[in-house]
Specification:
single chain, 92 residues, mainly alpha, globular
Length: 92
């Protein structure tokens, strides 16, 4: 399987875990952080194996996400959505 597809699926799984935590009103902190680490690793591998300009959007989103506050504002959600669109552009 293509590294870009694996990275985008890992990103999607992490995003769905965060979305389910938002809906449930609880925190999956350890699981979400482990999934985020896996997303960063698979994203870095995808960039190394197949570098394109399209990787700029999801890579930027991954760098910005830790500095946003998911429970206080919706900036975390917006950045995550922009990153998902970026991965869609990479895979397309």
């Amino acid at each position: 399987m293509n590294a870009d597809i694996i990275a985008s699926l890992t990103y999607l799984a992490t995003m769905l875990l965060g979305f389910s935590a938002r809906i449930k009103g609880s925190s999956f902190g350890k699981w979400h952080h482990a999934a985020f680490a896996a997303t960063c690793i698979t994203g870095a591998v995808a960039v190394v194996l197949h570098p394109t300009v399209a990787h700029i959007i999801p890579a930027t989103a991954l760098m910005v996400l830790p500095f946003t506050r998911p429970r206080i504002s919706r900036v975390h959600d917006a950045v995550a959505l922009i990153g998902a669109v970026g991965w869609g552009m990479v895979v397309w």
